[in-house]
Each structure stands twice: as C-alpha cells, then as structure tokens.
Design goal:
The structure holds two protein chains of two kinds.
Chain A lengths: L5 E12 L2 E12 L3 E5 L6 H8 L9 E9 L2 E2 L6 H6 L1 E4 L10 H11 L5 H14 L3 H4 L12 H14 L4 E5 L7 H14 L4 E5 L3 H7 L2 E6 L2 E7 H4 L7 H7 L5
Parallel strand pairs in A: 3-8, 3-9, 6-7, 7-8
Antiparallel strand pairs in A: 1-2, 1-4, 4-5, 9-10
Helix pairs in contact in A: 3-4, 3-6, 4-6
Chain B lengths: L5 H39 L5 H5 L2 E2 L4 E2 L2 H32 L4 H13 L4 H15 L6 H25 L3 H9 L4 H9 L4 H17 L2 H6 L24 H10 L7 H30 L4
Antiparallel strand pairs in B: 1-2
Helix pairs in contact in B: 1-12, 3-6, 3-9, 3-11, 4-6, 5-6, 6-9, 7-8, 9-12, 11-12
The chains are: A alpha/beta, B mainly alpha.
C-alpha cells in the first residue's frame, strides 16, 4: 500500500509550447507504490505532464519547460543518462503503437536495447509481460507474427507489455483503455491493482470512474492548473474542496 | 427507389469521360517509349552481338564496337555512386533524424532543394574548376566521377529524406519511451523500414549518371581512347576514359561516314543499361515492400 516515501516531486512546473502555456506552475508529490489518478478535460495538460516526467517532451520543437521534477530525490534535468531515466518509467499512450517487429521482438526490444542478450531470460520476460498485459493467451502460439498486424485492442495490450518490459519503477498510463474493450479493460485494471505493490502508477484517464476504481489519490487538472489533489474518496465525495472538481466528476461541467 | 435521375446520369457520363481521358494520357505516355525502343532495336539489329560489346571502336569510329565507352560509363557510374550514395544517405539521416529546426539546417535544406535543380552544365564547370584545375586531378575518371557525385548528391539526399520521413513518428516515440537512443531507434526501426525507398532513390541516379554528357565531357571523358579489350580493369582512376553518352554524340554528329547501325547500337546499349538498372530497382522495391511491416 502507498507509503509516505516521495517517488516523484513536482515543483512549480511550467510548460509552454511556443506562446501557449500547457502547464501553468503546478506542484505536487507522488508517493511510492500509489496509484495516482489524473483527471481533467482535454487541453488540461495531462499528457504533457507525463512527457515531462520521462523527458520525451524534449522531442517537441519549440517547447520550454520550467520548474523541477525530481524522481527519487534526483532532478530529472540533471540525471547523467536520460536513457536510464526513461527505462525507469513505462509509458502507455492512448493510441496503440505496435513497432514493426514480431510480437516477441516488440516486448524484447527494450531489454535488448539495454543490453540483455540471454535467450532464456528474454523468453521468461516476454511471457511475463504479455501475461501481465492480458495478451499471452491470445498470442502465445504466434509470437513470430507481426505486432502491427494485431487488432487495435491487442496492439494496445502489446504496448502495455512493452512498457512493462524494461521493469519500470513508475508506470504512466495515458488513457490506456481508449482502444480496449470493457472486459479486457477490467482484466488490465486487475493487473494494475497487483502491480501497485511493485510500481508507482500514474493513471491519466477520461473515465472518471476508472480513477475512482483504482486510484488512491486523484488530481484534477484544468487548463494547465492543478485545481485539487486529494484522496480519491474525497475527490468523489459530496464535498471536495473546489466546486469545479465536484462539477467535473459529476459531469455537470462547463 | 434507386432510379437514375438526370443528375445521376450526368455524373455517370462525366465519370466515363474522365476515365477515358486519363487512360488515353497513360497510353500516350507509354507509346513514345515503345516506339523509340522498337525503332532503335530495328535500326541497330544488324550490329548487335557480343563482339559489339567487347571490341574497341576502330577506323576512326567507323567500325568496331563500344568496349572503351561502355567500360568508361560503368566506371563513372560506379565510382560516382560509391562516393555520393554513402555521403548522401548519411547526410539525409542526420538532417531527418538528428538535426533540429534552426536557421542552419533550414539553409542546408534549402541548398539541397536548389542544388537538385542546378543544370548539369553548371556542375560541369564547377567540376572543371574544382577538381580538374584547383585540386590538380587533371581530366580523369576521378574528376569526372566526383563531378557526377556532386551532381547526384542533392537528389539522393532529398529522396532518402523522403523515405525516412515516411516512417511514422509514433514508432520513434515508442522507442524513445523505452529508453532507446536515437541511433538504436534509427538502426533497428527507421532504417529497416525505409531501406527500400532509399535504395530505389540511389539506383535511379544510375540512369541519370549514365546519360549525362556535359559534366563528364568537361572533366575526364575523351573523344577516343584505346584500351585492352575484354579487360574490366583496363582503366585506372587517373586515366581519361570514353563514355557512351559522349561516344553517341561523337559518332552521330562529329565523324563523317559512320555506318548508320553504329550510333543506333550505342543508343540501344545506353538505353538498355538504364532500363536494366531501373528494372532491377523496381524488383528490389517490390521485394522489400512485400516485407513491409505495417
């Protein structure tokens, strides 16, 4: 269960795409082994926040990031190897991306890039990750076929398996269930409930009920501002601190 | 239900007319090519034989074959591509995968686009000044190949960049997200999925190099040179050489009383080489595309 060790400390974070401010100075901490839900309407800065955490925001031209993000007390801007930093973090984005490789190679890609060559080790890892992503039973007989030929929902689970393949300490999920059917979504949610004992999970979701089901705490972002962060039962109660939170959660926003 | 209103009938007629016009244009495009080929083959037929390939021109170009110019063209094409292909492909990888968007890379990209449109005669003069005179290579195969390489470089860069850009950015992001470096991403994902386009772009430059006359005429190709017949190492880098394009020009316009079949034979070999290479590139592309993975 969540403890009070700080895994990620975000302080005074600002992100600007050219002249447009996407995140306007937010600060909060994420504790080790918690599932933190992040909710908010479109354009509120949720996906941007995830990209800042693994520093892939740098690939966006014309972006300016201010403030600090610390992981395990270390400033992400000052780490020696950004690739090691990214390996600590598993990322799943809304649209599934199967790499143009076999299913096996998709999952084995990250460990191979990190230098793992041992076949038995890779086999074991591929099976474990595919099981965790609830995909193993469907693909175990055709691991050699192309990942890009899987259906959308299967590719999304493949993406999740890949995000787990480098054994991250933090798992960021950005609306992972958008391309996945409800039954599979539930299976993956069950997996997340078990994974929380090993990893810290950041769950960005448009399905507020998903945050309610899974998250220990929930943050409500709106227009690049952090409106409120609290225990999930408080956010979803009759009286969260901010009226806007209540309105959004109950679908009477705007 | 489902009856043909006047509007539907009109649309149907337009549709049919459009189809016919487009088809006619396509046929019109192929027709000249087939006619040229047939005409050349017909005129050259009496002279085409293995001997024609492996004997030098004789009797002041009025007899013999095309060995010296044929081999010269091969040298020029191969050496110039050995120079321009690696440089062009690597430069394109840098521009597309590493370089940011700033004034420097914008100038380079602009230069690439504009250089691709420079007439070959200008390249010829540049080659004469830079390689033959300034670098002191003299008129030689090396100078001519370098000139051709400079000429093809911007086109190779442009076509390679296009092939690289066709690989979806999402693939790269997925790799970066799991901690792969840029080079690992390029090596394992980007290059394997763009190699067919890159190779096609490079191979298509063969036909261009083989056909150019002006750049090589200024920098290393001569009117006549006798080399040992059938020996593919008959030239060395600092020799002058003959070339098919120049040879065709010479025997068609500069030498009197050349038997008619000779220039046609030369043209058939030049065209045949180009078509062969193009066919090769198409086959390669079809083969590599069959393995396309998304």
């Amino acid at each position: 269960m969540p403890n009070s060790t700080k895994k990620i400390e975000i302080s005074n974070l600002t992100v600007k795409y050219g002249q447009v401010a996407a995140i306007k100075g937010i600060s909060f901490d994420i504790y080790k082994n918690e599932i933190i839900g992040i909710i908010g309407p479109a354009q509120s800065g949720k996906s941007t926040l995830l990209k800042v955490i693994n520093r892939t925001i740098e690939f966006v031209p014309g972006v300016a990031v201010g403030g600090t993000v610390k992981i395990d007390g270390e400033d992400t801007q000052k780490v020696k190897s950004v690739h090691e930093l990214r390996r600590k973090i598993g990322m799943v984005f809304p649209l599934p991306v199967g790499l143009p490789l076999s299913i096996y190679d998709n999952v084995a890609f990250a460990p191979r890039m990190a230098g793992t060559r041992n076949k038995a080790q890779l086999d074991e890892l591929v099976e474990r990750c595919l099981r965790q992503a609830a995909l193993w039973d469907e693909v175990k007989d055709r691991l050699d076929s192309l990942g890009t030929k899987l259906s959308g929902g299967q590719q999304q689970r493949l993406t999740i398996a890949r995000a787990l393949s480098h054994e991250p300490e933090i798992l960021c999920l950005d609306e992972f269930s958008i391309a996945v059917d409800p039954v599979t979504t539930m299976r993956i949610e069950d997996v997340l409930k078990e994974l929380r004992f090993q990893v810290t999970i950041i769950l960005v979701t448009n399905l507020v009920q998903q945050a309610r089901r899974l998250a220990n705490r929930t943050a409500f972002l709106f227009n690049g501002d952090l409106i409120e962060i609290d225990r999930t039962d408080v956010i979803f109660s009759e009286n969260p601190t901010d009226k806007r939170t209540y309105d959004y959660v109950n679908g009477i926003f705007g | 239900m489902f009856i043909e209103t006047p509007l539907v009938q009109k649309k149907k007629r337009t549709e049919a007319a459009a189809k016919i016009v487009f088809m006619l244009m396509t046929i019109l495009m192929i027709l000249p090519l087939l006619l040229i080929l047939a005409y050349l083959l017909y005129k050259a037929f009496p002279i085409l034989s293995l001997d024609f390939f492996i004997t030098n021109p004789k009797n002041g170009m009025r007899a013999g074959g095309i060995w010296a110019p044929f081999l010269g063209t091969m040298y020029l094409v191969v050496i110039s591509l050995l120079i321009s292909a690696p440089i062009g492909v690597l430069a394109a990888v840098y521009l597309n995968e590493y370089a940011g968007d700033n004034w420097f890379t914008r100038i380079i990209n602009l230069a690439v686009v504009n250089l691709a449109g420079v007439p070959s005669i200008v390249h010829a003069l540049f080659g004469l000044g830079a390689f033959v005179l300034f670098a002191g290579m003299g008129r030689s195969i090396l100078a001519a190949s370098l000139t051709l390489a400079i000429m093809t470089l911007p086109v190779i860069i442009a076509s390679t960049k296009e092939s690289l850009a066709a690989v979806p950015r999402a693939f790269r992001e997925a790799c970066w997200n799991v901690g792969a470096t840029r080079w690992q991403t390029i090596r394992h994902i980007v290059l394997p999925n763009s190699i067919s386009g890159i190779l096609t772009g490079v191979i298509l430059q063969v036909s261009r190099t083989a056909g150019e006359t002006a750049p090589v005429m200024f920098t290393g190709v001569v009117f006549f040179k006798k080399i040992s017949e059938g020996d593919i190492f008959a030239y060395n880098l600092f020799d002058q050489c003959m070339a098919l394009s120049m040879h065709l020009f010479t025997i068609s316009t500069q030498v009197p009383d050349v038997p008619k079949a000779l220039p046609y034979g030369t043209a058939v070999v030049l065209l045949g080489t180009v078509l062969l290479v193009n066919a090769l590139s198409i086959t390669l592309r079809v083969y590599l595309r069959a393995r396309k993975k998304w």
